[in-house]
Amino acid sequence: MTESTLGTAVRTVLRRAIDTYRDNPEAAGWLHQHLTRFDEPLRLAIAGKVKAGKSTLLNALVGEDLAPTDAGECTRVVTWYVDGHAPGVALYPRGGGAPRALRIERAGGSLRIDLAGTPADDVDRLVVTWPSASLRTTALIDTPGIGSLSIGTSARTHQFLTPEDSPTAADAVLYLMRHLHSTDVGFLEAFHDQGVARAAPVNTIAVLSRADEVGVGRPDALLSARRIASRYRSDNQLRGLCQTVVAVAGLLAHTARTLRQEEYVALTRLAALPGDELDMLLLSADRFVAADGTVELSPEVRGALYDRLGMFGLRLSTTLIRQGVGGSAALATELVRRSGLDELRRVLATQFTERRDLLKARSALIALDLVLRRDPRPAAAPLIAEVERILDGAHEFAELRLISELRGRVVRLPRELVDEAERLLGAEGDVAARRLGVDIGSDPAELRAAALDALGQWRRRADSPLSNRAVAGAARVVVRSCEGILATLPR
Ligand SMILES: Nc1nc2c(ncn2[C@@H]2O[C@H](COP(=O)(O)OP(=O)(O)OP(=O)(O)O)[C@@H](O)[C@H]2O)c(=O)[nH]1
Ligand SMILES: [Mg+2]
């Protein structure tokens, strides 16, 4: 089944279910929402413990100051950011009821949302509409910190992402952590353990956040962070809970994407100081902000620069300028590249955007399964059979199950074959070149040759009398993936 036929199958079964449940307005309405949701942008939630850097990373992804990062009331409610013609914000009250429009204003760059006296506990969610190309394919959802001292704040995130009585409204989650903590594992397990289509952690990417703070801002902080992320990627427990782990310095990325000319000028002044003077100044945040005499930048300007870049960002920016990176655009590009944001965006594109239909199908089947279990009736029997047929028959789900079994070592293959199998199954991205592990720019003849080669090898493994049943079964799934890749390539 190709992605679009999977989409068609899911839409069809949803329509039939709406008809079957037409006498149950709540169920029919809920299924209808899922039918509409299928055609909407992917919903990506950003979650993690308090102050993991969620709102900052959201802003970095959009490239604008949108999500508030201070301690205001707004950081305590689930807030959606969606693309739209005119800026606006709507408050959806808890327990249903019509949304209310709120005032929205910009204060010193970032967005201010005034809850107009409504306590955070009475808010189900805020929906901020903002014209932005980056929100067009994916809606971003900022969630309050897990493990907050305020029980209400944490609870709102749990209710949203791991509700007890319904599937989550998010299609995928970006989970931020500064180090791996038992709270993080607990959350990922709960998020992962939902409903029929739970086969593999296809909808979760973990981020080692605030990467610049690893090793207290040493010059090689980002390298160390990348090494830790790579260790997490091969950690057996985490492999079963998320697709991959990427290290990102969100603050650096966000500031770089919104770097102002006057900030660049201030940085060049710092970079022009004699080396030992600059080193002394950048020894600590207190010294940098409070020092007098040496630089012609006021303490306010220095304080603001520190807030925007952190010690690591200040050191890196001045070093780059000294090394000859000239102009604010060039500096911004280099900072973004080093921050890990480009890598994260690539992973988001291959893991989530390219798999949109699969993630949407998964959300819809979980919702449908819930209705079928809550209100069982004879007329729904064919629907149950159809859901099973889609889950068993859609090769995408077979791929997910096998990736999960390989990671959980339910099926054992030699290490080098595991990596190749996962790649061919689409674990590193859905497009042919990524599956085949060749350059993205490869021409169709090269792709074809690589696909035929992989097909031949996995066929032999599937047919070999030396392969045990589990291995032969796994190889047959990979063979189908190879055939699927070939079918998408022009002859
Ligand atoms: N050094 C550094 N500081 C960061 C980074 N990301 C965020 N911060 C700072 O950490 C603080 C919290 O950042 P937020 O983005 O508000 O974190 P959050 O996870 O949204 O916080 P809550 O919503 O309150 O749970 C702010 O002072 C940020 O400037 C980062 O990558 N590096
Ligand atoms: Mg926040």
Largest sheet: 9 strands, mixed
Question: Count of DSSP helices?
Answer: 21
Average pLDDT, rounded to a whole number, is 88
Low-confidence stretches: none
**CATH class (first level) name of the largest domain:** Alpha Beta
Overall outline: globular
Assigned CATH superfamily of the largest domain? P-loop containing nucleotide triphosphate hydrolases
Strand content: 5-15%
Q: Going across the major beta sheet, what is the strand order? A: 4-3-7-2-8-1-9-10-11
CATH T-level fold name of the largest domain: Rossmann fold
Short summary of the structure?
By secondary structure, the protein is of the alpha/beta class.
Description of the structure:
The protein is of the alpha/beta class and 491 residues long. It folds into three domains: 39-252 and 342-354, Rossmann fold (3-Layer(aba) Sandwich); 261-326, no CATH class; 358-488, no CATH class. It has 21 helices and eleven strands. It has helices at residues 3-20, 25-38, 54-62, 151-161, 182-192, 221-233, 236-239, 250-257, 261-271, 275-281, 285-290, 299-322, 328-339, 341-351, 356-374, 381-393, 395-407, 415-424, 432-436, 444-463, 469-488; strands at residues 42-48, 79-82, 88-93, 100-102, 104-107, 110-113, 123-129, 138-142, 172-177, 204-208, 245-247. It has a nine-stranded mixed β-sheet with strand order 4-3-7-2-8-1-9-10-11, with helices on both faces. A two-stranded antiparallel ribbon has the order 5-6. α5 (182-192) links the parallel β9 and β10 (204-208). α3 (54-62) packs parallel to α8 and α9 (261-271) packs across α12 (299-322). The chain is globular and about 80 Å long. 41% of the residues are buried. The mean pLDDT is 88. The site of magnesium ion (MG) has 4 residues, from α3.
